Structures are given as C-alpha cells and as structure tokens.
Amino acid sequence: MRLIQWASLGLISLVAADSNLTLESRNILPSTFKPPQHFQNVNLVRNINLEKNYVRETVNVVIENVGKEAQSEYFLPFEPGTIARIGGLEARDKKDPEKGGFVAEVAVTDEQSSTQFYKITLPTPLQPKGQLTLSISYWTLASLNPLPAQIGQTDKQYVLYTFSAYAPSAYLTQKQKTKLKLPTTDVPDAVTLPKSLNTEGKEDPQKQGTSFTYGPYSEIEAGALQEVSVRYEFTKPLTHSKLLERDVEVSHWGGNVAFEERHWLTNRAASLKNHFSRVAYQQSAYYNPPMAALKELRFPLAIGSEDPYFIDDIGNVSTSRFRTNMREANLELKPRYPVFGGWNYSFRVGWNGDLSGYVRRLKTGSDGFVLKVPFLDGPKQVEGIEYERVVTRVILPEGAINVHFETTIPLISNTTSLHRTFMDTLGRTTLELTAINVVDELRDRELVVMYDYPFSARFRKPLTIFGGILLVFVVSWVVGNLDVSIGSKVKAA
Amino acid sequence: MSATPLHDLWEASASQPFQPTFSKDSQFQIGFTLLFIGLLLTGLFGLNNTLKNVPLYGVPASLAFG
User: Is some CB atom of chain A closer than 8 A to the CB atom of B29?
Assistant: First the structure.
C-alpha cells in the first residue's frame, strides 16, 4: 500500500514537473485553429494586480458581435506555456453579476508550441450588433521572477514581471488600456513605450503612486503583443506549494471530523548569495525586517477546532502556537528553519472539529446527510500562497452511498473510491477531488457533499466484531474441552 | 432550481445539525465500561469453560467488545 502511495506521489510530481497541462480536461482543437472573427472588443480595460506573489488579472471588456449570426463562443488566447499556470478563470456578465459565472473551459490546440485558448460560452447567444460587457478574472501562478536571482540574506528583493502592454485577444480591439497595481513605489525599471503608440500621445507607462497605466491604445489587431516588463521591490517570500493533500475524515460514531493537510512548499524567491548566517538571522529577529524567507504561517481555523498537530519528516515541530477562544482558533506555525529562496519545506498539520458544526441531517429521509467543509484551509498569508495542485479527499463513514458533491472551485478530476484503514470491513467511501492552480484567496470556498448513510451500515462494524469475538469464545470452548490426555481413556464420572 | 442545489439543501436542513449518539465527553466512560464488562465476562467464562456458559457469558461479552 505504502509502495503504491510512493509510486503515485512520484508520478504526480513527475506530471507536475512536466506541467499541469497534461491533466487538464481539454477540448482539442486542430493546430491551425484560428478563432472565427465574429467578435470585436469595443472597449477593454485590463487590471493587473501585483500586490500578492501571484498575479491577478481582471479584464473588463465590451464585446460586440460583428458577424451575421448569433454567436456564443468567445475565445481568450494565452501564450504558449502560460495556460498551464492559469487558475480560477471566471467570466461573468458585468452588468448582471447576480446571474453567476459563464462556462469557461480550456480549449487547447494539439501542438504545445502554439497559442492556447480558453473558451467562454455565453449562456444566451449574442445577436448580431449586440453588445455585452464581460468581466473575466484569473490568476497566473509562478509569473514573478526575482532579479537579481541571488541576494544577500537581509537584502531587498526585486522581482520582474513580464507581460504584454496590449491585452492578448483573439479579436480586433478598438480601445484598450492596461492598469498595473504595484505593492510599492520602489520600481527601478519599467519598460517605456514611445509616445507614438499611445492614442493620447503620452509616454507609457503613466505613473500615479503605486499604479502604472499603459494605454489607451486604439485599433489593435487580433493577436498583437507588445512585450513590456516592470521590476519592483517585493521583499516577501514567493511561497509556492507544489502539492497540497488534504483529508477530511468524517466519523459518525465519534461525532468528529478530522482534518489533515500535507504541504510540500517551496520558496521561489531569490536564493542566498552566500551561506546562511545564523548570527545575522538572529540579529535581524529583533527588528523583524521584511525578508524573502518564509518565517511564519498562520492558519485561521474554524472556531471550535481542537487538538492541532504540526509535524514534519523529523517529528513534532514545537515552534507552534494555537490560540483558541470563543471568537477565533488561530494556528501559528514557524517552520523548523526559515525557508529561503530555492529551499523546500514539507510538513503536515491536522486538527479536529465537532461533527455537529459540519454535518446536517436531511429533512427528506432519515439516512441522508449533508456535509459542508472548506475546500482547502491552508495558511493565510499577507503576501499570498499559490498552490500548483490541491488534492482534497473526503473520507466518509463505511457504507456511505449516493455521494454527490458541489463546489465553486474549478476541478480537473473527481473520483469516488474506497479508503481502507484500521478495523475496516469494506473500506470507507472516499471522494477525491483535484484542482490545479489554486491560490489562498479561494480558501473560503465551500465544498458541500451529500450522502446516504443507512442504519445498517452504522452497525456493520460492531456486529462484525461481535461475530469475530463470539467465534473466539466458541473456539476456546471447543479447544478447552478437547481431551488430549495421554493414556487410556478415563470415563467421565 | 438555483445553480447550487446542494448548498440549498444545506441551508434547508439548518434546524437539524448532526447529533452524535454519544457525545465526545462520554466516549471514554462508555468505552471503558463496555470493555470492562467484556473482560469481566471473559474471565468468568475462562473460569468455567462450558457450553452453557458460551451464550451466558460469551454473547454479552462479545456484544460489549463490539
């Protein structure tokens, strides 16, 4: 069993190294695919938020159907290699946000080197000459790179972000603008564009405090790119989780729900120029300057959580605090060592919760239950955390059937299987959900699971043990009454 | 029918939180008592190992262990 686990973990890391793309559910398009030019972007405003260690882009665009027939498929292009790092892509009607998100799915061409697309399907086709304001938002993971790539232990860190001043689009864009929101005013380098490109004749970027603006630009052809980059101070860890495995184990007899998270973290920040100096590190601990090393992780848990643990490959890590009262349950962890750029740290944390806060009995039928848990907890950091891959397992009691789930996190796979552990007869019903390119802003998203847990299943385990022990009694009686004496048989009196 | 049927189900059953058969505080006492009864009956059965005593001691002991 352990071997299989190792093998599968190896496989996962191999696949992850290759790129997340290999596991995407995808619509394959021919390599010569060009999105039909049915649409035109009338006005496009792109906001790029660089305040966290992942990049959040929000594109608000007024689209117009310039074709002759009603259209419902809008394509969003991505550079080769970036689509595997895009997460949480959501598209909605800006004028009607209540209506919920549109269907957005990956539609890739079979050739890895060409431009890849996301396909956004409008719920109602847009009539010719009709206009619609789309609001598209997504995260790009691992897109900030430290420059210089090596710094001293207490130096400031600068990161480089490269992007296109023209918003990537598969359609002609009449008017557009890109706004950057930086975390600081310390920006040593920003690529400037000549005045001739700008519609208003200004030199780009136009700076205003911590926000930079490229544009407006008019009449930009489909697929046109203008590469620019900014380099700015970001003396914070670029915490990147290669894999997060999360278990939620439900016990009806115990009235308990047990959470466990296994993290494989790495820091993408600039690596150390010299050896790590413990003296310098201890000295800096007194005035606590900003640092590119990951020093602390904070888990705000659900109120009422108890019995937390924090262990790594060596064993229990004693540098943790658990503050719990009526209003909060905060788990504050310090890794065994400060995680500098290029260093890794893997650990597991776990805690228990009262089942009555997570499971409710359904009104219809006595055996139906509904469970609501966060899809992921994970640390909540000021600078953010990005997850390449999150595997959440919900381990239901033995004999749970008719499992249905619902979550707003885009998933790439879901399977229902059996998880066998101590004293199990058949194995526990397990729902395994996988998501890729998740960030810590999604930690409030819920996972709702509905299942039936019949009365008979509840007593299966006690009855099995009863049967087994009764057998022991019977056997002991049989064995105890065997006549194994040597010599002639003595008639019982 | 809204877009989140399961979430609605969750809200609809707000008045019925899960009530465990035994609360977490009493788990140890119940477990200990049952095991103790089980061990005691096993001991008695061991002292007087007869067919009659299989149902007399064995069945309740097994139930207690289970």
Answer: no
